[in-house]
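Weekly sync notes, structure subgroup
Attendees: PM, AL, DS (notes)

Item 1: joint prediction request from the bench team. They want all two components modeled as one assembly rather than separately. Inputs as received:
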Amino acid sequence: MAIRERVSQLLREMPREPQFSSQGATLFVDLERRETASAYTPRAVTRMLLGGRGANMYYLYRLLDESLSPLHPEIPLIFGSGPLTGLVPSAARGNCTSWSPESGVLLDANAGDYFPSFLRMNGLDHLVLYGKAPHWTVLMIRDGVVSFEDGRRYAGLDNIDMRDAVARDTGGMWRRNLAMVNITRAGENGVLTSGIMAGPKAIYARGGPGAKMGALGLKAIVTLAATRELPTAQPYKPYNRVIAQKLLATSVVKNALSVTGTPFLYKPSRLLGAMGTKNNQETTWTEALDANHFDQYRPGMEGCFRCPVNCRPLNDLHNAEPDKYDKGDGPEYVTLGKFGPNLGIDRVESVIRLNNICNDLGLDTASMGSALAWAFELFQRGIIGTAQTGVELAWGDAALIERMLFMTAAREGFGNVLADSTRAVEYGHYPAAALKYRMAVKGLGQSDPHDARILKAFALGLAVATRGMDHLRNRATLEINARINDNPAFKAELYGGPVSAEPTSYVDKERAVRACENIYAVGDSVGMCRFTTKLFNSPSLPGMEEFRDQLANVTGLQFSTSELEQCGLNVMGVERLINHRVGVRRQDDTLPDRWFDEPNPGGPYQGERIDRQEFEAMLSRFYEISRLTSEGVPEEAWRKELAGALGA
Amino acid sequence: MAGASMEVRESVSTVGQLIAALDRLKPGLARELDDPLYNIAINDEILLHAVDSRSVKDGDVVEVIPTIAGG
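Output from the run, pasted for the record:
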């Protein structure tokens, strides 16, 4: 069945009126025919998957034709905001979902800034995009009215110039009434490490969404409308104050996120000997990249729509002869790690500059850093040579890496190889021997630089994450916090049962990952930021209780915390059903060979590695408590429940 | 607390005793440190569990390290 038939079928089943207070419509956009249709996510789907990421899975599950390939225009690209997005402090997030051209499995990326909130201000909760536009197109949403505009004048523009041009052409003001998601040259050129920019730095990053949007001929989606109040079931602002106070009173927000941002994690990882260095061949790196060394280049902090935390560090290199990469937004810890130790770079100035370039070029620093580090190690080992690369790939050569970023965005020279990311062997660029050194799971390079040979809960999380090797789906981050490890009763309360205090133990770690996966999926599906969701950075941040209460105020829908837990599990379940359809099996819930075969080379946990037998046993326990079969898909009874609500 | 240092003159042999001694010098400090944000490192070795019973000796550098999740 072709996409248009699938959409028609779905529309016949979907209600034409909102199903709860504040619900926005789902807009189906046929880019080829320039047609739109809208309806509302069914109530049964909201009860099962909430909105945002969860409801995106409903649309992908129903519209996916796995006989095609990810970049085919009949594979939809779906944006979704949660029911709390734009209304609740720190709930400024939305997800972008498809079938990943980079990994070959689920594509699901999350971003904040202003677009997800402003989409809702235009009366829309979801956008489902399909068909290839006849030429570069901008989808304009002005006060809720959609138009297709010629985007050819923006072709070839990267993020900085694109944002300038759109602000000028629309007369809108960023952060006030104007928001945008857009691709850059990298997305236009089908670069698999390209994301969809959602702000100066904010990016739907993982899995190659930029390439997917480019394949639809869509340069940008622009929203232009004044912010407004959405009709809610009952007053919600008094409880917003409670949430804001809780956020701002939490030590991690007050003393870390609001003043320095995420680069704080570099030092603990370095001291642990868990700092992925030179493609994880080494695990510790220089103190010259500790967060305090960024202080002199940080003129202030920024934030997303209505977020009181302001966790995004701005940067200014103060160069005497500045170019457009002298100032910017970031870096986050991921970028610091992937463009610092991971590539052998030891100067904060280089990391900041490369960060600013990636933001302009629309490159996912996680995938891009992974692709570069993989290539550098292959060169170091003689698996590839200068005949292919054109130059010597020397660790730490920031100027070379800068050139490689531009070559990647343009798919020029060796940049064409890097642009194919983890698929470089499959596409014939590298010999099969290269796969041994690819730090990826399910075809996705590792999101952050933390080497997980030590903390077994981290390792399990990376193995089972539905979008591939990514820490933001389920990382039991508090495993690294000694005060929690040394309080077994409190730790058991957090995770719903005992979890070993020892970071290197495999005992009960599946319980911590399960709990995190549930609450993070719920956070994504209501629109809450991961940084301010309970269990990711602190046990004191808003969690299921706050989501329950504010969902009731905003939507009128009543959930118990255990029902929300089930929603989180359901989101994971549908994602696994989608992955199963594109060929993912138990053998894909694994880790790179290096972590099984090579002991950690340094630091206090020298010698630590992942034991295959222990890992498989932990994975089986994870499946068991997650109601998954031995192949990692929902058990039959649950699968039937899910299928019923999905209308499949 | 950033960048601050304190000198303990009484005899201590574990991290737990050290924190208690510091609390006597600056009341409320132990409570402030009893926060999941903070980890303790001894001579650049970050401690992930069994912190209070970890031994310390003369000359050890004990550091409070803020630890967050990253993004």
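Discussion: DSSP finds two helices and three strands in chain B.
Action: AL to compare against the crosslinking data before next sync.
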